[in-house]
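Researcher: Let's do a round of design. I'm pasting the structure tokens now; please hold your answer until I've finished.
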């Protein structure tokens, strides 16, 4: 800290020295008068005229005329009052500037600067910790309690709570945001998702009303469409779920991970209707199984978990390329079909660009879901994944764990 102030003082002294340099370096003599300076100039000009006349560069008549003009100017200058050209140092002004400059600099630095940024040791910028975030959010909550009419602030607080996983508080904050949400489809969709999550996945009532409101504001909002399809699926309105999700599919990049996951959900809805999902997309060729490019085996449910699964729950056997979330083949059935023999090949691919025949080995697992959703959910029953070579047979999968 001391080094900082010393450096500032030296900089101030340097600036003052540069400002006062003309006065500090002036000579100590009495100066040169204007009359003396003019006389020297005239003597020099007269000497030039003499040289030009001697060198025949100037005619006699022109020489006489120029000399007369020069003598006339000398006479006129001598009539004026002589004054000594001395530069006197303005001592009072120098003293005022010397005192004011440091004072003004320090004042501006205190008001506009950031002393801590210079006094703290240099290093990488410190990232906000969880404790810092908690403190900031708590401070915002306290301010909003004192100013409950700040609806935008309540919406900001709600999103902060959601990011921190504090879903119950986030829902309450959204409630207090009130009319600020009315024209924002995304915020309404986030609010609906929170309400359904806090209701253990139940979309009836408040979540559905919020989804409808969001789609009224923006009929093509992706999150609202996804939630609307999910609500329809869980309400066993499978046709409505398919229609809604297919609208959302039009917004996704072909063969993207999101598109493939959504296609899996659409396939689950078709399966719930007892139908097979279309295996082609516009402009694509039908998927044909490659000879020998398959894995097969049997899946069963562990006796200890039989009371946790209903006969109508969806069984999914999934093959993925190791390290990838995107399935290369999926087969669906119901718990009532267990034990189930399965064969996963290219005819069960979710996308023509992601097929089991393109992999040398795959991870195979089974999952039982009450909702039949593509994404794993808490409470799903799971088997452990097995990594096998493509072409493997006799794979034995046992569903023996509950997803936390």
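Researcher: That's everything. Go ahead.
Model: Designed sequence:
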């Amino acid at each position: 800290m001391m080094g900082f102030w010393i450096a500032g003082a030296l900089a101030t002294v340097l600036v003052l020295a540069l400002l006062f340099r003309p006065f500090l370096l002036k000579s100590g003599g009495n100066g040169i008068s204007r009359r003396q300076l003019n006389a020297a100039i005239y003597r020099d000009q007269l000497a030039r005229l003499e040289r030009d006349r001697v060198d025949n560069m100037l005619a006699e008549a022109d020489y006489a005329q120029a000399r007369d003009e020069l003598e006339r100017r000398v006479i006129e200058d001598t009539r004026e009052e002589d004054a000594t050209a001395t530069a006197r140092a303005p001592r009072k002004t120098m003293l005022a500037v010397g005192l004011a400059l440091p004072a003004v600099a320090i004042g501006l630095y205190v008001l506009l600067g950031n002393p801590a940024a210079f006094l703290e040791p240099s290093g990488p910028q410190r990232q906000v910790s969880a404790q810092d975030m908690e403190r900031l959010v708590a401070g915002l909550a306290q301010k909003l309690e004192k100013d409950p009419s700040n609806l935008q602030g309540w919406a900001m607080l709600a999103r902060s709570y959601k990011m921190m996983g504090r879903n119950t508080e986030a829902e309450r904050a959204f409630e207090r945001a009130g009319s600020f949400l009315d024209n924002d489809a995304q915020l309404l969709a986030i609010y609906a998702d929170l309400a359904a999550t806090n209701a253990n996945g139940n979309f009836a009532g408040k979540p559905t009303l919020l989804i409808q409101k969001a789609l009224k504001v923006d009929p093509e909002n992706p999150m609202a469409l996804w939630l609307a399809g999910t609500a329809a699926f869980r309400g066993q309105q499978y046709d409505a779920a398919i229609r809604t999700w297919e609208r959302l599919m039009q917004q996704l990049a072909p063969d993207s991970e999101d598109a493939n996951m959504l296609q899996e959900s659409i396939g689950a809805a078709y399966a719930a209707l007892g139908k097979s999902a279309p295996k082609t997309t516009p402009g694509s060729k039908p998927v044909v199984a490659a000879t020998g490019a398959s894995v097969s085996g049997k899946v069963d449910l562990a006796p200890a978990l039989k009371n946790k699964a209903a006969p109508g729950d969806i069984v999914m056997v999934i093959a993925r390329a190791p390290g990838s979330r995107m399935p290369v083949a999926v087969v669906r059935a119901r718990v009532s079909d267990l034990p189930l023999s399965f064969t996963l090949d290219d005819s069960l691919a979710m996308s023509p660009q992601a097929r089991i025949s393109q992999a040398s080995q795959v991870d195979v697992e089974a999952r039982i879901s009450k909702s039949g959703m593509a994404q794993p959910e808490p409470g799903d029953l799971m088997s452990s994944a097995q990594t096998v070579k493509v072409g493997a047979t006799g794979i034995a999968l046992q569903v023996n764990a509950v997803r936390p």
